Amino acid sequence: MPYFLIIALQVFCIYHAIKNRNEYYWYFLILFLPVIGSIIYLVTQVFNKKDLDVVQNEIVSVINPTKKVTDLRKQVAFADTFQNRVYLGDALYETKDYQSGIEEYEIALNGNYNQDNGVVKKLLEGYYQTGQFEKVIFCAEQIHLKTDFKGSKSQFLYGLALEKQGRSKEAEENLTPIDQRYSNYEERYILAQFLVEKGKIAEAKEILEEILLESQHMSKPNRNRYRGVVNDIKKLLTTI
Question: CB count, 10 Å around CB of 77?
Fold first, then answer.
């Protein structure tokens, strides 16, 4: 196998292992047995979870993360449509370039926030990531009556933005719906931290203990993915 392909394969496998918080022994296997280790990792940890097309796209993204953005910019230049702008915004978010992604979504919507609920949610997330909390609140107010808003990540970010603006009572009202069993572990941990700060220790403990109980029934991928959160929860419980 050509040397550069081996390196690309190793980079992808390490990236995938970090992203999914897989066990540390995988890193040694991939690094010290580049070909065999990477193939074993792909067969046991990737191909049985993802379609081949998705894996290929991830490999390309790891090797050249800006390629997708470049290709989509060309597509927008050829056909400046709503959907092409949204695709470009999505790709920019994937590279953590939230400000540029925001600009694409804003152009796509052109001030019409009733045009697409999903794009407004993406804008809301981008505004939060870039610290534009007043705009987070503005976006939330455009979609808060939608049936899929309650209990969503968008409502959760809305609650965090309200807290940043000193509106704690409203913040709690919009943060608590994220507390849904067997999901939203990271958000529920943040909610518990919020409740601790507000002196609501019993409520915070209840959430944290529920997550720990649920963690005992997680699938292997989820155990790997949320290991850090579970460990943080255990630490927090020892301090309150």
Answer: 9
Q: Report helix, strand or coil for 196.
A: helix
Among the listed residues 87, 44, 40, 86, the one whose alpha carbon sits nearest the alpha carbon of residue 68? 87
Give the number of other CB atoms < 10 A from CB of residue 67. Answer: 12
In this prediction, residues 221-226 reach a mean pLDDT of 88
Rounded Cα distance, 60 and 52, in Å: 12
* DSSP-derived 3-state class of residue 216: coil
pLDDT in tens, 135-147: 999 999 999 999 9
Q: Token digits for 158? A: 């809305």
Contacts of 60 (CB under 8 A, 6+ apart): 67, 68
Cα separations in angstroms, 180 against 174, 177, 210: 13, 7, 10
How many of the other CB atoms lie within 10 Å of CB of 61?
Answer: 17
Task: State CA 15 to chain mean position distance.
Answer: 16
List the one residue out of 139, 155, 156, 135 whose CA is nearest residue 147. 155
Q: In the predicted model, what is the mean pLDDT of residues 93-106?
A: 96
- What amino acid occupies position 182? Y
The model's confidence at residue 208, banded by pLDDT at 50, 70 and 90, is very high
Question: Is residue 203 a contact partner of residue 240, using CB atoms and an 8 Å limit?
Answer: no
